Amino acid sequence: MRCTSFRGPGAITVVDYRSDSYRVLNSFPVPPELASANDLHFTDGVFLLSATKNKLVRCTSLDALSDNGCESIYEALQLKGNPYFFSVFDGRTHLSDIAGCDTIYELIDIGGAGMQARDLFHP
Hints:
mainly beta; Lipocalin; 11 strands; 55% strand
């Protein structure tokens, strides 16, 4: 099984896990402004990384994290809270936020030019 995880602040680590042991496949540095990462998700050909406070970026590769090759999409999606956790159900990617808004969004065409976040739930 291939897993991707945060290795404390400052890195994302990709490992191969088998029979109670793992082997590190690669490690990707994370810039300081994204060191407070919450979640990482791959969809529509892009990696999405949410971080505190109010940061959401999309990257075509994890290598792009270290060379400022990621695009901030928080403002373009008109999010209001702190992007937190990604989930997939009904074949669609969803994003929850915390810290004041507690909204659930459906992310549409997130890898393309027509990306949008549709508000599904807002208390």
